[in-house]
Structures are given as C-alpha cells and as structure tokens.
Amino acid sequence: MIFGHGIDLIEISRIEGAMKNKAFTKKVFTSNEISYCEARKNKYYSYAVRFAAKEAFVKALGIGLEKGIKWTDIEIINDQQGKPEIFLSNTAKSIFHNLNLTHAFVSLSHTQEQALASVILEKL
C-alpha cells in the first residue's frame, strides 16, 4: 500500500550557488554522496537530484524536515546498475520504522537547468 508520495523540483543553479558555502555541502550531503558527485562530469546535476530526492522523501513522510531529521540522515546512493536507492540513518530511520514503512522508491531526473525527484513510500 502506498503511504506517501513526494516530488521536488529545483533549479540546478541554486544548488551550485549554495555549494559555494562549504558548510552547506557538509550539512546536506554525506561523505558517500560527496564522493559520488565529485567523480561525475556534471557534478552539480548529481548534487541537485540528491537534494531534490531528500526533499521529496520528507514530503512523502508528510512532516518535512521536522522531528529532528537531518539532511544527512537521508542518503541517496546508486547501486551497481546505476539505480538510485535511499539509505536512512538516525532520526529518519527511526521515523520510517515507527510508521511501519517497508520500502522507499526513488526516481531521479534532470535537464540542464532543473533537477527532479519522486519518492514513493510503501507500507504493508
């Protein structure tokens, strides 16, 4: 059963501008995400879709970035085939389990100007 669905769209230039502040990068992205994005040719596309996915995830939960969830509690990593997956830790993981959610599906896309993410949360 679908528990929630979240979508987020962001201009890539906004993320690129925000990342001039190194504190923003460390606050929002995990070391795994930073390593992945920095290895990409168009790294800001990768950063922007991950930011959008984190926003879409908290929208799907229905609480936004409240209840103590930190940006880095939500990690977007691609598997060996390139499929993006959501990994949770700390408060985000606790809330996910307390709501009896079983899976988070994520889809990422971008143009040259915008990044889009969609997250669907499943519950038994």
Question: What's this, in brief?
Answer:
The chain is an alpha+beta fold and 124 residues long. It has one domain (2-123): 4'-phosphopantetheinyl transferase domain (Ribosomal Protein L22, Chain A).
Description:
With 124 residues, the chain is of the alpha+beta class. It has one domain (2-123): 4'-phosphopantetheinyl transferase domain (Ribosomal Protein L22, Chain A), CATH 3.90.470.20. The protein has 5 helices and 5 strands, in the order βααααββαββ. The chain has helices at residues 12-18, 22-28, 31-38, 43-61, 90-98; strands spanning 2-11, 74-78, 84-88, 101-110, 114-123. The strands form 2 sheets. Strands 1-5-4 form a 3-stranded antiparallel beta sheet. Strands 2-3 form a two-stranded antiparallel sheet. Strand 2 and strand 3 (84-88) form a beta hairpin. Helix 1 packs across helix 4. The longest helix has 19 residues, at 43-61.
Topology of this protein?
Layout (H helix, E strand, L loop, with lengths): L1 E10 H7 L3 H7 L2 H8 L4 H19 L12 E5 L5 E5 L1 H9 L2 E10 L3 E10 L1
Antiparallel strand pairs: 1-5, 2-3, 4-5
